[in-house]
Structures are given as C-alpha cells and as structure tokens.
Write the structure tokens for this entry.
Amino acid sequence: MEYQNNNGNYDNRNRRKSKKKSLLQSCMYCALFTHSRCSIGNCESGKERQRIPYPREKVTQNNESFSFGPASTAKMITALTVLDYCSPDDEMRVGAEIEMMHDDSSRAWLMKGDTLTVRQLLIALMLPSGNDAAYTLAVNTGKKITGDNGLSNAQSIDVFMDKVNQKAKSLGAENSNFVVPDGYDADGQYTTAYDLAIIAEACLDDPCISDIVATYSSYERWTNGREVTYKNTNELLNPGSKYYRPEVIGLKTGTSSLGGACIVSAAVINGNTYICAVMGSTEDDRFQDSIDIIDAIKNQ
C-alpha cells in the first residue's frame, strides 16, 4: 500500500483524514487528447524523439484549481526533469542520499552501492513509488547539471528542484511548486489537478516514461548484478484487480495527508487519449472514481 506521509504506513488517523471531503474535497480533471498525439522514439540513448503537436480539449472538471499536496504524483515531474539532463542508459550509483527520505516513505529498497541505469531507477521511481529512487535520481542529476560532483546532497537537491519548477512552468503548470523530488508533504509544496494533467500529458509524450508507467510488473537485472521485480501501485493496470481496465496506459498514484489518496490516470478510448487526475480521495475510491469517468466516456 502506498502512503506518502506516507506510503507503506497509511495509518487509521490519516485514513479518516483523507475521507473527510470537507477538509480535502474530491478534485477531478479530465482532458481529451486526439489520436494524432504521438512520440517517435524509445528509451534507448541516441534515439531522437519527434513530438507531434495536438489540440487539448477539456472534457470535464471539478475543483481543478484547488491546491493539494502532490504526494507521489510529483514523481512525474521528477522523471521528466531527470530525462532533460540524463540519458536512460546513464548509470547512477546509490549513495547516502537515500537516507534523506522519511522513515515512513514508500521505497524501492535500494541499497548503498547499487549501480543501475537511469531507466531502471525510473522504474523504481514510478512502479513501487520509491522515494529512495527519487533522491538518487535527484542528487545525481543535480550534480550533473552543475558539473560539480563535490556538491553536498542537499545542495544537489536544491539545484535539481529549481530545474523541476522551471520544467513545470515551461509545460504550463503555473499553479504548482515542488519542494522535494519524492512529493512527500513539505511546507510550500502544492499543485492542482489541472497542473498534474498537464504534467501527465508530457509524460505520455516521452517514450521512456510512457513505456514505464504503462507496465504493471517489471523484472530487471541491475549493473551490479542485483535482480528485482517491481509491481505498479496503479490497480487500474493490475490484471488481477477488480479495478483493472485494459484501456488504461498509466500513470501515477500517490497518498499523503495534504493530498489524500490520488491517481493520475490515462486511457485510450476509441482512438482518443484521456487523462484524469483525482485528488483528495480515498485508497479505493480513487480507482473507482477513475473507472466511473472511463465508463462515462465509453458510454457517450
């Protein structure tokens, strides 16, 4: 179970808190993307990506500009920022930065000394929602941005988060501010359902990220020989779940005190791609809310 203030320790106190609509309110945003949207390329380094512009049509909305803590949905913008500076095939070594995450974080169980590619770290970030992967990616990318391997972990995070917020603004996510790479609740950190949908659009447009977030289960053998299998926290992708929908192609879940239980999902229906962001819900209702929207679109 994912809880971000957090994931893995979703206690009864915070369950009750997330259920209080008067405090968190359910906030949903759904956007229609035409079938002409596509990216040509893949996760391999050296492959060029071609983006084809397409119109964005708003289908439905509810409190789309209401501010919430992003929880682990923030990992979408973390992934996008990493790939602005790193190739998926670049290797990174896990270090003491994983100790920067909170004790109750969701994690991919990285260990100091593990060596793996950026793509493998992105899998660890997006499927089990590893906060440890978020810090390893952020610190290594921050050092690469400056060209200074002597930066402290904290300094590297600051550099990286500056780029994260620049990236968000460049995409059109004007009402968000991200403070930490894992999305863990922090002072001054906030987003909206609308902004998350915009960020999700960019994730779908990236061949590496879109491939990862559409995957339910992933086996990898890392550079240092360690073998891992991760399952996606998104029950809409789980063939064994009552929430499974074959048309769903991602994207990211999250849960926190300030964000409630969240999910940003995407589905391809009749050749069109729909993105839906559900914030301030409960563990189960977030999936059902998404299904209700998917079914409503299919029955139009």
User: Anything to note?
Assistant: The longest helix spans residues 153-171. The two ends are 34 Å apart (CA to CA). The CA atoms of residues 43 and 211 lie 8 Å apart. The first strand starts at residue 27 and ends at 33.
